[in-house]
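protien #1 (seq + structre)
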Amino acid sequence: MISKFQNKNRIQSKTKNYILSLFVLLITSIISSLGGLSFQGIESIITKVLPIIVIFPSLNDLMGNFAIVFSSKFSTWLYEGKIKEKYAFDNKEMKRLLREISIAGFQFSAIISFLGIFISAIVEHQLNIVSSLKVFLISVAVVEILILFLFIIISVLGLYLFKKNKDPDEILIPLSTSLADFLTMVYVASFVLLLF
């Protein structure tokens, strides 16, 4: 039989989790909304580079998926005791995961950029070799930089949450995917401004 005290603690715990979930939802919504601001003022440039418009949704989705993989694997390994608090960056599983995701990221970003260039050519968008190489460079650079950045953020934040007896999955997955969305927009916009 559940005592009155246990029931009260259970209700307080559920309330805290609910409030934390709402807070994370609010923060992730704000982060995702801010990403669109990075495209303000460069619409005229982006519309001239059709492959960027074509590849952007795929890059955004790819980075969100990588953030989910990093977050879930990291949380699982924390609970399994495979990652010690001081040695998250020196962990063999984490290094292997980073290497595998970096290789997959390069392959997918290359495929995405080539498809974007191909689709642009089909709709008769004038694109020269130099512009095509710039699109390829933007795609690969954005993905590889974000993979490394997400790896660091997820590791640091995941360890912090684990030390505070919070479930890292509850916070890491929504936060890292929103951060990936936001940063993909910022990096794509930055590289477009820099290269075009």
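ok now protien #2
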Amino acid sequence: MNSGLIDWLRRRFAGRAARRSTDALGVPPPAAETPVWCVAANIVHERAYGPGGAEKRRGTRQFAPGAKVYVFSYFWGMGGDMVTVVGRQRKTKRYITLSMRADHLANWRAELVYSPHVIRQILDYGEFAKLPRGGTQSQSRAEEIAAMYRQRGAASQPYTTRVAGGTASDGAVGRQDASNPD
């Protein structure tokens, strides 16, 4: 390969690693991010679409049916009908953030978030940024919000989770009913 091309590639992409390894002030992030409590939900398997809900569509345009999303911002002035979520996009599998209707979500629950990207989104824009990270206050607030949406009639559907005794390497996947979490 041409040494000029190699030098150009090194110069071109040298800053990317530096940008990812520091924040805006040049301070590197902590080695292990502290987990944050947040509300998690799944995208509904089927939703009504079209005039009068005549058609059924699987999932949404951006998320596959059953995809896990983290809900970190709520538009309370509209009765909580619209929420801001972060999750993996249907086709690219990259994290995306968007506002969507709350009735396209099912299985509302409180969960600890470990993903650095999702934690950054929550702390930059979410309601949980004002609460202590991983504390009981943020856990109770997340459970309160999830319970409110369940009381309002949010959908409940079966979802896929890892079996308690299984590991990621053996690929043990089981069906779990949302109404019976055990």
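Residues 98 and 148 are 21 Å apart (CA to CA).
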